[in-house]
Amino acid sequence: MEQKAQATTRRFHGSKVVLYIVLTLLAAYTLAPLYFLLVNSFKSQSEIVRNPLSLPSLWDFSYLSNAAEKINFFRSLGITFLITLASLILIVVVSSLAAWIMVRNKTKTSGVIFLFFVSAMLIPFQSIMYPLLNFMDMLGLKNMGGLVIMYGGFGLSMSVFLYHGFIKSVPQGIEEAAVIDGANILQVFFRIVFPLLRSTTVTVIILNGMWIWNDYLLPFLVIGNSSGVKTLTLELYFAKILSGQYGSPWELIFPAVLISILPIVVVFLSLQKYFIKGISEGAVKT
Amino acid sequence: MTGYYKKWFYPLVLPALILFAMVILIPFLLGILYSFTGWRGTYFAGGGEWYESFVGLQNYVKAFKNPKFMSSLWYTLRYTVVAVIAINAAGLALGLMVTGISKGSGAYRTIFFMPNLLGGLALGYIWQIIFNSLYTDLLFGPNGIFPVDFFSYMLQDQTKALFALVIMMVWQTAGYMMIVYVTGLNNIPGDLYEAAQIDGTTLWQRFKNITLPMLMPSITICVFLTLANSFKLLDQNIALTNGDFNTRMLAMQILRTTKDTTPPDYGLAQAQAVIFFIMIAIITLTQVTVTKKQEVEL
């Protein structure tokens, strides 16, 4: 009996070693394209063609600074950051307030409204983008402000759903006490309820932030190439289209992609625990 | 207190309702309406107002007779089947492996998740070069180290490009599904495995009879996410092949329909968009109903 147990443990350890080897190989496979991106961001076109995998013969930062200039890096980074931030604030405030009052005021109307929000999750962006753009144009909102409103509308459904699910488990006793103490409704919500929703707020910010930051289609339709003010992804798209007209596109594409993904990678590495938590909680509730 | 909440219901729900109406509801209804008209984007063919431009089901008939639309529809369906299976198999395998170790598990998870952060466009450009330079010139092309026809010039053939897209999407999104599967795996009570081990079951039996059934809620979610995302895929499709060699998927077809003809046929594009919505709704709702039935209650 004891012998058998020992054999099992040994086999177990053996399989652990195999597991580590396989995982490390897969991690290398996952990182390989990023390595490829990194080393080629410092090479000339001809060096990329000659030695695509080796380290650059010289760590030449001129390709990076050239790419930063071509995609107006600091301006487009700032614009992308502002759009993402404004959209997230809009989504968080509007959907948490609506979800809270829908949970607290349980009527038929509130149930129907909730159902409306949830079923909208099935509507893909592409199936309404043309009439949406047409309608926003009519309202004079085919601009940055309109972009934020559209992200707000699209982020709403899932966020209301997530907040709604969480608020159901928040006791309402403290709210009553605060009302008796003379707090107004916004004070009750923002001072007492909202801090309790922190974990859902993190989920909402991560899930919405990831797609808004990287989104290509909506800025393409709203801003396009006409205005000088573009998001990072949009700048990258137009840089790539233009690069075909020069003789050496790769020495622009590699560094342009590298600097455009750098900010979100830095954010992720410093807040990774929230990303992982946000995604697993977001998925469990949907 | 009930009266208090009731009094504040509309003021607090109103901002959400306005946003919802502006961005989703009104465009959705307008879209259905416009799909029955000769909409040209800035005007309506044959009349000043939309109701003077009614064409009945003509746009829908045109859509199903349009070889580009039909080709993108089949291509999307084929891609979706392969991608859903491949991404979920990879995500589940990663999940099983990272939960099988204790030391360093977090670092592996971080690495596997990382590609999800990057935009589809940025990634597509890099993978385009990887398929051209590494896959073709260095590894699998006629002058490569191990010539394999299937893996060379992958972006210049409809079927090969489909698998190129799958290779890239597995690389990018398997780590996301891994996180969802890990959450599910951690929720399976350990004593189930202990009891089964005492009964002398094999690893495969435990996987098939404990892990899989207990994991059904996570499978429902992950299949739903991959199904919807594969069907709606756009950025990566644009970045990798830009629809060349008949590799347009549905989302790109809807986007490019208005560039295919002059004057732009927004009516036709919108009819395709409505068909697109109906198909996504049917496919995802069916999937959730079917996989939900497989879930077990403890």
From TrEMBL, chain A:
Entries under Pfam families matching the protein: BPD_transp_1 (PF00528)
Membrane spanning residue stretches: 17-38, 79-100, 112-133, 145-167, 188-213, 252-271
Source species, domain of life: Bacteria
Keyword ATP-binding: no
UniProtKB keywords: Cell membrane, Membrane, Transmembrane, Transmembrane helix, Transport
InterPro entries xrefs: MetI-like, MetI-like_sf
Cellular compartments per GO CC: plasma membrane
Subcellular location field: Cell membrane
Membrane topology recorded in Swiss-Prot or TrEMBL: Multi-pass membrane protein
Biological process annotations from GO: transmembrane transport
Domain ABC transmembrane type-1: from-to ranges: 77-271
Family affiliation: Belongs to the binding-protein-dependent transport system permease family.
Name assigned to this protein: Carbohydrate ABC transporter permease
Species annotation: Youxingia wuxianensis
UniProtKB/TrEMBL annotation, chain B:
Principal location class: membrane
UniProt-listed SUPFAM superfamilies: MetI-like
ABC transmembrane type-1 domain sequence ranges: 73-287
Compartments where found: Cell membrane
Transmembrane stretches, start-end: 12-36, 77-99, 111-130, 161-182, 210-231, 269-290
Protein family membership: Belongs to the binding-protein-dependent transport system permease family.
Protein name, UniProt field: Sugar ABC transporter permease
Organism, as annotated: Youxingia wuxianensis
Organism lineage string: Bacteria, Bacillati, Bacillota, Clostridia, Eubacteriales
